[in-house]
Design goal:
Number of helices: 6
Largest sheet: 5 strands, parallel
Distance between the termini: 41 Å
Length: about 210
């Protein structure tokens, strides 16, 4: 896996005149893991979106470097894996077609090897449903497919926003297995209010500590 470094310096976010958080600073490198905590609505998802390049900060710098070279915003998707309740796959495609389509996007038009996609589907226990339309999946099955999507490109940086959403105990075990595997070499950021999730990470950042008082 590539040498990765994520640096946030003086990150602040406002929506209109409402301050969400301010002065967030941290640096993470390979095998570092961080849990983002805080009450619902405190800004965990907002910070995740800033890191992913989906939102711009009001102030500050968010930089992902790969092998000591800064990644431009338009190329972040190549190096980031992302799972969140607001990330949607294509209901009209099959499980296999979804992963094949997104693999093409992440690799400049080159499809992932079919056997590799099969292995991802097997990892999240969806291999036997690989040719089924995602529209017919349960909410838990869709979440497991999102887990496969999040590691499709073996990302140096994995962003997980409430990864246990809609998962039963079996699904949570799958998610935790993916987390433990990623932590060996990659950077993990996990937004959660679950103590079990927080315990998986080496450090914790409570968003509420960075809000106006």
């Amino acid at each position: 896996m590539e040498k990765a470094e994520l640096t946030l310096s003086g990150i602040e976010k406002k929506f209109v005149n409402k301050l969400i958080f301010r002065d967030i600073n941290f640096t993470l490198k390979n095998s570092d893991s961080l849990a983002l905590t805080g009450r619902n609505g405190s800004g965990k998802s907002t910070l995740i979106k800033i890191i992913a390049g989906l939102l711009s900060p009001t102030k500050g710098i968010c930089k992902l470097s790969i092998d000591d070279k800064k990644t431009e915003k338009e190329h972040l998707y190549k190096y980031i894996g992302f799972i969140a309740p607001y990330v949607n796959l294509y209901d009209e495609l099959t499980a296999f077609e979804n992963l094949e389509f997104f693999s093409t996007m992440k690799s400049n038009g080159k499809k992932a090897d079919k056997e590799y996609i099969f292995s991802l589907l097997d990892r999240v226990n969806l291999f036997n449903r690989k040719n089924d339309i995602v529209r017919d999946f349960s909410s838990g099955m869709k979440q497991r497919l999102k887990l496969a999507f999040s590691i499709l490109n073996s990302p140096p940086l994995l962003l997980m926003d409430e990864p246990r959403t809609n998962l039963d105990t079996y699904g949570i075990d799958i998610a935790y297995g993916i987390i433990e595997e990623h932590k060996k070499n990659g950077i993990l950021i996990l937004a959660t209010n679950e103590k079990e999730d927080t315990a998986l990470c080496a450090s914790t950042l409570n968003i509420e500590h960075f809000q106006s008082r």
